[in-house]
Amino acid sequence: MADGYMRTAKVVIFALCLAPLGLLLWRGTHNGLGANPIEFITHATGDWTLRFLVLTLAVTPVRKLLGRPQLVRFRRMLGLFAFFYGCLHLVTYVWLDKFFDVAAMLEDVAKRRFITVGFTAFVLLVPLALTSTAGWIRRLGGRRWQALHRLIYVSAVAAVVHYYWLVKSDVRLPVFYGAVVGMLLLWRAINRRQAPPVRTTQPAPAGSRG
Amino acid sequence: MGEITPKSVYMNRRRFLSAVAGLAVARAAFAARLTGAKSPYSTSEPQTSLNDVTHYNNFYEFGTDKTQPADLAKNFKTVPWTVSVEGEAGKRQVYSLDEILKLAPLEERIYRHRCVEGWSIVVPWIGFPLSALIRRAEPTSKAHFVAFESYYDPRQMPQGKYAGIQLPYVEGLRIDEALHPLAILAVGMYGETLPNQDGAPIRLVVPWKYGFKSIKSVVKIRLVEKQPPTTWNIANAHEYGFYSNVNPEVDHPRWSQATERRLGEFFKRKTLMFNGYGKDVAQLYAGMDLRKYY
Question: Is the ipTM of this complex over 0.90?
C-alpha cells in the first residue's frame, strides 16, 4: 500500500472515530440528549468504548481472513480511541454523576460490583495506552510488549461483564457483545501458532517491496 | 367539583367517527382536557416538563429503551377499557372507565415520583383516591392486601417478550397502604388524559414508593388475603422488595439510593425518606424493620 494512500486512510479513519463524539456534541447543542442528558452521555460513551474495544480486537482476525496484513496499522488508533471513549465515560461518572465525591466513588468501586469490574476494565487500558508507541515496543521488546497488550482481552471481557451487571432485566445487548468478544477471543485461541511477529522497526518504505 | 365533561364527549365523538369512517381511528391521537380540584397533598415544587415525562418512560411492554414507549405505544388501544374489581369484596364488579370516573370527584395531585434507578420527576396527576374504589368494593375481613394487574397483549406489545420480566405486569399494596389518601388512581396528567406511554387510561400512583410500584394501564384490582406477587420481585427478589418504600438509607444492591437526579437539574439531590411523604405515611411502618422489608 502506497504511503500517501495509507496517510489518507488514517486521516479518514481518525475522523470517523471522532464522529461519535461529534454526534454527542451536536446532540448536546440541539437538545438531542433526551430527558436525562447525563445518563445519555454515560451510556453513549460506554457503548463506544465497548465498540472500539471490539473493533480493535477484530483487526487481527479480519486482516488474516482478508489477507491484508497492513490493516494492523489501524489497530493502535482504534485501541487508543477505545481508551479515549473510556476516559470520557469515566470523566462523566466522576464529574457529572459523582461531582468528584471521592468517598462516594471509593464506596462505589468497593461495594458495587458492576463498578468494580468497569473500573478494572478501564485501569487495564492505561498501561496499554501509555505503551502504544513503536518506541515502547523497542523498549520492552516485542515479546514482552505483546504479552502486556494481551491485557486488552481481560479489559474487553471486564467491559462486557460491567455492562451485563448494570442492566436491570433486558440482557440482549450485553449478551450480544459477550458473544462477539467471545468469538474474537476464540479465534485467537484457535489460531495461536500463526500469530505474526511484532514489528520493532518501521516497515520498509513503499516501493522497496515487490 | 372536577370537570369531567370532555371525556364522554370525546369518547362519543370517537365512536361516531369510527362508525362513519368504518376504519380504526388512531386511538392515541386524542387527548381530552381534564381538570381536577386542588389538593393540599400537592407539592409546590417546579413540575417536570411534559416533554420529558412523555419521552422518558419505563414501560417495558413497549420496549426497554426509555425513548421507545413514546413511539411504540402510539397505537395502543385504550378504548374501550374495563377494570375488574375482584376477590375478597362484597361488591365485585367490572367497571367501564366512565363508571370508574363517577366514583369520586377528580383532584389534581402534584406528586414527586422517584424511580428506583435514581432519577425523579414532579408530575401533576389528575385522579382520585384509590380508597374510594376499595371502599365501594366493600372489602371483607380477609382483605389484607390489594393486587393489581396491567393490560398485556403480545400483539400490541411485541417488544414485551424481550423485557426480561414476566408479563402481564403485577403489583400489590397492603390494604392500609391502598386506603391511604395519598394513593390515587390517575386518569390524567398536565390537564389531559394520560398519554399511552405514561400508563393510559388509568394507573396507580403511590408517591412514597419507588416508581415501579405505580402500575400502569390497570385492568384488574383484586382484594386478597395473602401478600400478592409483584413483577420486579419475581424478576429479582434480592433487589426489589414488596414494600419498596423510598429510603435513602437502604441501598439497592447495585447502586446507592442516597441521592437522585431530578430531571432537568444538573446537580443531584439528597433522596428523602418516603420520598418526602414521611409525615403522611411513616406511621404505616411504625416498628417495621425497613431494611428487612425493603
Answer: no
